[in-house]
Amino acid sequence: MTKHPSYRARDQPQNGSASQDRKEIVMHKFEKRDAKSRTFVILAVVGLAAALMLGIFTAVRMLRKPPASKDDPKTGIVYDDSAVEGGWDNLSPEEIAEKLNEKVAEGMINISMNTAPYFENGTSEGNVMIVNESINNYPQQVEFIRNDTQEVIYQSKAIPVGSKIERAALDVELPAGTYECTAMFHNLDPVSGEIIGTAGAIINITIKN
Predict the structure, then answer these.
(1) What is the mean pLDDT of the chain?
(2) Are 155 and 143 within 8 A, CB to CB?
């Protein structure tokens, strides 16, 4: 009778233990992958938060950026030192009306002269009585323009506020007769002398001889 060698339990392959080891290795790999995935997610969230914070910081800096200084050589505009933030919305209706009335009054031209000046002849002085009233805000210049020919027959120099020209000769010698003219009163810029406003009135000039 043939004898077969006996096997002890420890000599048999431990299939169950090897399978368990393989499972543990696979699980360990999955755990490493999960850890890496979580790391990438965290880094992505941190990067997004940093970009968002940078964007907010930049926006705040732009909103809080002060207006260009008049002394800044990089700008081509000079800002008025007297300008303050605000508009009409900071005033009551009564204050708005008062401010508007002040602007209208500043631009108004009060004219005063003899509307029928008389000249003894074409070269003599006449009683023009041109007055720049003290209630005006600007020097005035006055011109007489013939309505029939549009010829300028008289032009004064600047008349200060609160001053008058009682008598003056015409710049053009006219024959005897009556001439309908328009007296043009020009408000002048006190510094440049440029005309900044004009008003007119009809006058009749009489030349006796």
Answers:
(1) 76
(2) yes
